[in-house]
């Protein structure tokens, strides 16, 4: 296969030409923004037969929140819980970039206070705000704003 100018395409270029781009560059851009700032906003994602709606946050905030919630639920004394919290919170450091160095394109998207809905927009049973982490390339579409249970 060749491009419009007759040059042979690489195997990666052929895959993109035939199958399309598998990662939404615009969604990656939004995730890069929240990963590098304290900005958060409502987003609704369409993912493999489900709809997930919540607040898009940076990976650092996600892992810090995850560590707090996980440690709080962990059995044991306060010292043990703090050790667990510190251990899980250490993953947040992945999202601290070195000065003057651009981070690699994000591969994961993080939501807090997220809720899952069926494709018809009905809330799934036990639907409460939870932490959610998914692969960006698994998202088939998105819209800004939160899907509300009242509107479903």
What's the short story on this structure?
This protein has 152 residues and is an alpha+beta fold. The protein has helices at 11-19, 25-35, 59-73, 78-89, and strands spanning 41-47, 50-57, 108-117, 130-135, 139-144. It is built from four helices and five strands, in the order ααββααβββ.
Uncertain spans:
none
On the 0-100 scale, what is the average pLDDT?
85
Taken from the alpha-carbon principal axes, the silhouette is globular
By DSSP (H or I, 4+ residues per run), the number of helices equals 4
Q: What can be said about the biggest beta sheet?
A: 5 strands, antiparallel
Oligomer category: single chain
- Kindly provide the radius of gyration, computed on alpha-carbon positions and rounded to a whole number of angstroms: 19 Å
Q: How many beta-strand segments?
A: 5
Q: How would you spell out the order of helices and strands?
A: HHEEHHEEE
Amino- and carboxy-terminal Cα gap? 47 Å
Main sheet: strand order: 4-3-2-1-5
What structural class should be given to the helix and strand makeup? alpha+beta
Commentary on this structure:
The protein has 152 residues and is an alpha+beta fold. The chain contains 4 helices and 5 strands. Strands 4-3-2-1-5 form a 5-stranded antiparallel beta sheet. A hairpin with a 2-residue loop joins strand 1 and strand 2. The mean pLDDT is 85.
